Give the backbone structure.
Amino acid sequence: MQGGLPRAALHAQVLAALQVVLHVRRTAEGRVLESISVLLPAGEQRLTTVVPAWLRGHGQGPAAEALGRLIAQRGLPVPAILRSPPPPPPPAHRDGPAVARARVSS
């Protein structure tokens, strides 16, 4: 944005340049893949949104189908985890979403 581009134009350039983001975490044992996300346009202005396709410990995310399409477009076999229907979201916990997230991630 410092170059004077409007926000929507900057987001359009990001979407044209990037499609997938890998989140890698460093651990004592080495690097670990935490998640794979897909950059997708959202809203009227088509602003860039990072949507998880796969999450360590949880499996398929909301953008699994989009990632599967990107892989298939390149003539590669789509992994089974991206072809199966996503699991239903976990039920809301009575203590609220923050507590439920803390319990899931531990």
